[in-house]
Amino acid sequence: MHHIFYYSSLLFAFTLPISRAAVSFFIIWFVVLFVVKRDFRGAWSHIKSTRIFWVMGAFLALIAISILWSQDKADGFNQIRLYGYWLAIPILAINLKREWLPNLITAFLGGMLISEVIAYGIYFEWWAFKDRTPEYPAPFMSHIHYSIFLAFTAAILFSRLLSNRYTWKSKLPMVLFFITATGNLLLSTGRTGQLAFFVAMGIAIVIHYRLTFRSFIIFTLLSTFIFVGAYSTFELFKKRIDHGIEDIRHLNAGNYDTSWGLRAAFWLVTYDILRERPILGVGVGDYRLAARDVLERNEHDLSLNVITWCKNTHFHNQYLMILAQTGFIGFVLMVWIFRELFQLPIKNPELKEFSVLGLSIFLIGCVAEPLWILQFPIILFVFIASISIAAARKPYHEIDKA
Asked: Could you tell me the CA-to-CA distances from 90 to 52, 106, 160, 354, 394 in Å, in that order?
């Protein structure tokens, strides 16, 4: 059974960035393996002694219960279904052996390498892939979500390059992979991942050199070099940065009809929702209904296009979604989840870096997208959380026996 779980986990990690079907299959497959193994007592021993599972359980329970005060049951159950991916976290965290974890990360990087090759082929028009264009060279997911994956990949590689755990000879392929991953990220047009990468790069420098004047200089020089080089070399990157600056100017002038302005409008909508339902929110399924209701009573001088957009889509921000759906109770539980994950006692320094960088990138990504209700991002969270918890897990003999 251990061999089956190991190879299944490797395939899961490898296919995570390249196949929706494989992701769905493995989530179900891990549940099947858990049931077949029938070590329910050992699993319960882990769960009841691990606080993060209780916090996650409380959050999921609140999400599920909030369907009771939701009018849009269909949308509510759809989101509950997506949160169901979290059920794989305790299964993976309990059954993954520590010695397997580096191989799982390598398998994930292998999947990202395959994705990168396809993305570069799309960008340079070497081949056609689905309906992707050189302007959006993200082969398997949206460009925003792909930028999160690329930022995570580049951050892991960057941290390894800074460490003294590898020889210069072994770092040479990492350098090439880091350059291609970073280049792919800067071509992806996903500003969310680009911002997350620069922040993660700073965190990695602090991890390895502490918060010193030296680390500040290194971060400033590297980030400036990468940004200026990309701005002067990649036309797509330059356009997106210029558009972002223009969006800020429009927003300062009170015009929300831009990419960033539309997201900013949801802060106004969420504020109005919280004024009326601050504790438990409007329920998991009613965020759109609530947006329509508050905008009908207070349009905030928004244009018709912005109002229509806000009434018919998710809030493009995970924090605002949680606040609207489950109020401040849900938001506190969300913060608590990340707090527990960041504080996991992971002794292996490379796995700790993996955890901190992954969670940091995810936190930044949640500002621009509701990553917990979108398939590829939520599976990335499952992967990061599972490996983090497994790396910190206490060695119970019932689970670790051969």
From this structure: 10, 21, 28, 19, 14
Half-sphere exposure of 103 (CA within 13 A, CB side): 12
Which parts of the chain have pLDDT scores under 50? 397-402
Question: Angle at which helices 213-233 and 191-209 pack, to 10 degrees?
Answer: 150
What's the pLDDT tens digit per position in 40-88?
888 888 888 889 999 999 999 999 999 999 999 999 999 999 999 999 9
- Amino acid found at 128: A
- In angstroms, the CA 84 to CA 80 distance is 6
Smallest CA-to-CA distance from 153 within 179, 119, 189, 132 is with 179
Q: How far is it, in rounded angstroms, from Cα 222 to Cα 154?
A: 14
Q: For residues 327 and 281, is the Cβ–Cβ distance under 8 A?
A: yes
- Give me the pLDDT at residue 397, please: 46
In degrees, rounded to 5, the angle at the alpha carbon of residue 244 between the alpha carbons of residues 239 and 250 is 125
Q: What is residue 355's predicted lDDT score, i.e. its pLDDT?
A: 97
Quote the pTM value: 0.93
Strand partners, 133: 136
Q: What is the pLDDT of residue 396?
A: 52
Q: How far apart are CA 204 and CA 212, in angstroms?
A: 13
CA proximity to 215, closest of 228, 224, 204, 225: 204
**In b/e form, how buried is each residue of 267-277, taking b as 16+ CB within 10 angstroms?**
ebbbebbbeeb
Nearest to 110 by CA among 26, 11, 25, 4: 11
Q: Which of 103, 92, 226 lies closest to 154, judged by CA?
A: 226
Cβ 121 vs Cβ 127: under 8 Å: yes
In 3-state terms the chain splits into helix, strand, coil percentages (rounded to 5) of 75, 0, 20
Q: Which residue has tokens 């109005």?
A: 272
